[in-house]
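Team,

Forwarding the record for the chain on the shared tracking sheet. I've put the sequence and predicted structure together so nobody has to dig through attachments.
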Amino acid sequence: PSYTIQDGDHFHALIGYRTGCSNAKVKFQLNYVEGSNVPVSIQEWEKHCDGKMTTIDVDLSSLKGHNVKIMLAVVMIGDWNGDLAVWAEPRIQK
């Protein structure tokens, strides 16, 4: 859904892999769309299957007042190799 970014908003999530991943490597992307425009990248992270979740905290203040749709993406790096990548607990908080 669309959301108007407010002062002090941060995007929070955990990124990582489900149990059983192998030699996987992906790029996690945090994007937004405003109106019917093309997705715009906010930030991205490369992560390999290391058995650990990474905490994400992104300040959204540069988008204050904009009505956007947040888009999460996972892009393979190389061949698919047990890429069990996950975004966990994504949310916007003050």
